[in-house]
Amino acid sequence: MKTYTTGKYVHIKKICNNYNHLEMLAIDQRPPIFNIIKQKKKNYNFDDVVKFKKHISENLSKHSSAILMDPVYSIPNLIHTSKSNGLIVTLEDHTFAEKGKGRYSKNINNWTVEKIKKIGGDAVKVLAWYRPDADQKSIKHQKKYIEMIGRQCEKYDIPFLLELLVYPFKNETGYSKDYKEQQNKNQNHVIESVKEFSKVKYKVDIFKLESPVDSSKLENGKFTKATQEAFKKLSLATKDIPWVMLSSGMSKKSFYNCLKLAYKNGASGYLAGRTIWLDAFKDYPNYKKITQSLRNESANYIKKLNTLTKKNAQSLDKYLANKLIQKKSINFKNVYKGF
Fold this sequence. Notes:
By secondary structure, this protein is an alpha/beta fold. The chain has a single domain, classed as Aldolase class I (TIM Barrel, Alpha-Beta Barrel), CATH 3.20.20. It has twelve helices and ten strands.
């Protein structure tokens, strides 16, 4: 018997725009913001980070269908500043264990899917580091972690938005624990990771995916056959689960071109942060200049992305139709289970 999830339908509608596309703004970043503040100060404090995020939300959220917030600095401090219709909430901790060739993700301490649902979140976002060639113990942990979250999201009838990122091992070029794009990434690592987590048992509702090729290959807008083929393979790997692109801090030109290719292959939008707003903070902590830049350059860039999305992104109309409770189900109230 087919399972219809009314709760997920309602929440996904809330994070979509009027065309059922996903135009989502991320302000859940932690280390990247800490680093900017520390460049001007010896260290960062709670109020510094909240103020930083507040300016992004106040000036850019009105252009987005949903905003992604973290429960440490953003919630509940910044919910009132958001003009987005939908609210996506981060579950994973930005710190992770690393042993040998493998990373181990975990939840933010004292934070759960249930709590995200209870505060009114419209989706649970989890970033999971994953490489199919990592140590088996790490692979087993990551699979178990993601499968557990998928079950919890099903229980509480809230969409599961999974972000997958490949990463360099300690002995590889460009090794870093920072959240940034792996240079010279193996596109098969990206594609095979998506193939794994598109399996039904993980219960993923929306993928947030990185480019299968280095962003440097997207900068000039002239795509090789190999690059075009990589995006086709990425799309096929999702097995028709809706997907959006992440920006991973790439240049504005590269991300715009990345979306062109992604939309050509069935992506339904984007969930981006630093590529949109990072440039505005070059004058940190001069918030007068920062605000001006957010309202002009950053806002104009979002509008440009949204125009492209409206014209070319895959609508979620059909996907949402499959999330509806049967209209003739006269016994709905009797068979629909609570938590």
